Amino acid sequence: MEKINSIVVFVFLTVSSIQAQQPIEKKEGTTFSIVHKELHIEGGLEQSMIYNDTLNQRMGSTPFLSFHYHNYMNEKVKWTLFLTPVAMHMTKNNKQTLRERYFQIESGLMASYKIFGDFWVSAGPGYSYRLFKDYKQGANSYEETNFEQPGIFFCGSVDYWFRTTTGVRFTSVVSKEGYFLKFGVFLNFNTIYKALKF
């Protein structure tokens, strides 16, 4: 499974980096054509709540890294493909004596609209494939346990862009198992690529 995950990420990054930020000539009579494409990388912190039989559950904090491939229809409308190669969600009890972690691949599609200024709102469905789940009691080490595939989820986000290449995003994700709240900073892939001077 790790090999499959690595191949998916490599192919996604390769295709996206080749096509990212390539203006596309708009054809006559095509109202819904894509005029611009960009790849953004987002990193941040997530708060997770996945319901189980544990009493007094509390949200757990985990870092995350996502890739967003934006397809602009015009200055106010775009649709985005997103991928989180390894999403980690953690829930704990109020005394932090029990922790559960869930590792999965998440991807989906979001439609976005610029409401005013540099603020965007987005919403759309996604699908997750669980890799494994483990838990920890007290000072013991993590142990793997049985799990079910979570499947479809829905997400919405609000973005504020400081520049054309940089911004912040607040995202809420809801599934049949629970919900996640994410706060992240995103940066254009080409900007990172040029800064590292590959």
Structure characterization notes:
This protein is mainly beta and 198 residues long. The chain is 13% helix and 61% strand. It contains 2 helices and 9 strands; from the N terminus they run H-E-E-E-E-E-E-E-E-E-H. It has helices at 2-19, 189-196, and strands at 36-50, 57-72, 77-93, 98-116, 119-137, 143-145, 151-161, 166-175, 178-188. The protein has an 8-stranded antiparallel beta barrel with strand order 1-2-3-4-5-7-8-9. It is elongated and about 50 Å long.
Give the SSE map.
Blueprint: H1 2-19, E1 36-50, E2 57-72, E3 77-93, E4 98-116, E5 119-137, E6 143-145, E7 151-161, E8 166-175, E9 178-188, H2 189-196
Antiparallel strand pairs: 1-2, 1-9, 2-3, 3-4, 4-5, 5-6, 5-7, 7-8, 8-9
Quick structural gist:
This protein is mainly β and 198 residues long. Helices cover 13% and strands 61% of the residues. It has an eight-stranded antiparallel beta barrel with strand order 1-2-3-4-5-7-8-9.
Mean pLDDT score: 85
Distance between the termini: 29 Å
How helical, in percent, are the residues? 10-25%
How many helices does DSSP assign? Answer: 2
Strand order of the largest sheet: 1-2-3-4-5-7-8-9
Radius of gyration: 18 Å
Please provide the count of β strands: 9
Largest β-sheet summary:
8 strands, antiparallel, barrel
- Topology pattern, helix = H, strand = E: HEEEEEEEEEH
